[in-house]
Amino acid sequence: MMRNHCNRLERSRGFTLLEVMVALAIIAIGLGAVITEASRNLSNAALLEEKTLAHWVAMNKVVEFQVGDEWPGAGEQKGDVEMAGREWYWTLIVINTMDDRVRRMDVEVRTESGSERPVVKVISYLGQPS
Question: Could you tell me which residues are beta bridge partners of residue 81?
């Protein structure tokens, strides 16, 4: 009887190769999911930063006209500005409205001057200065 008890102890001392391989596979799948999600979060953070900075550039352009005395005519203006160590390219499109004392301003901001697609587009209205 003592011998039977010792055989069971010897057999139950460690994990089998199959158990170890299954455990490693589960860990590998879990770590893969964690790495994928972390990568996705980093790219989302970069996109949000880019959109936030581009929005600030657009709003700065709108505020320049709101606090200034310039009354822009209908048409398009382009320029560039540096913000947060990056170069931004803006396009201002001024459109007449039904009210002669109000103009619509569309400000588009891009990261590249020749890009067709803006990062952000802000629409604002400007009242004629007194």
Answer: 88
Q: Which residues pair with 87 in a beta bridge?
A: 82
Six token digits for residue 33: 């999911």
Q: Which superfamily does CATH assign the domain made up of 2-127 to?
A: GSPII I/J protein-like (3.30.1300.30)
Residues 129, 127: Cα–Cα separation, whole Å: 6
Q: Given CA atoms 7, 13, 19, 20 in this order, what sign does their dihedral have?
A: negative
Cβ-contact 77, 98 below 8 angstroms: no
Give the DSSP letter of residue 24: H
Q: What is the pLDDT of residue 71?
A: 87
**pTM for the full predicted model:** 0.70
For the chain, the average pLDDT equals 88
Strands (E) in the chain, as ranges, are 75-83, 86-96, 102-110, 120-127
Instruction: Kindly tell me the burial class for residue 110, based on how many C-beta atoms sit within 10 Å of its own C-beta (0-12, 13-18, 19 or more).
Output: buried
- Spell out the residues 6+ positions from residue 114 whose beta carbon is closer than 8 angstroms to its own: none
